[in-house]
Amino acid sequence: MSERERVLPADGPAAPPRENGELLFSAPWESRVFGVTLALFETGRFEWPEFQTLLIAAIARHEAELGGGPYQYYACWLEAFRRLATDKGWLDADALDALERELAARPPGHDH
Fold first, then answer.
1. Which one, 22, 60, 88, 96, has least CB within 10 Å?
2. Distance CA 102, CA 82 (A)
3. Is residue 102 very low, low, confident or very high in pLDDT (cuts 50, 70, 90)?
4. Burial level of 15, CB count in 10 A (0-12/13-18/19+)?
5. CA 96, CA 3: separation in Å to the nearest integer?
């Protein structure tokens, strides 16, 4: 079992969406933030339980806000990643906001 398979549960509150056993992304940004998170983990920048705890907390907040209704998994993932990045001092919240605006302003089809 690879390190990636070990930390990505197939079920439970922190399990990513899957279809026929494959990870499911509905927008390019979802796969990108997922990939960046895993790359930072695999290079030893953080321990997986740190991120998993933040992700589960983000999911719980979203579920509470929606009264137990459906939530967007990768919105929770992004929230957890942003929290991890600020907690670790990689970027502050203002820098993350600026980067997010810059990336959102790129024209359609821009994939670099």
1. 22
2. 16
3. confident
4. exposed
5. 28
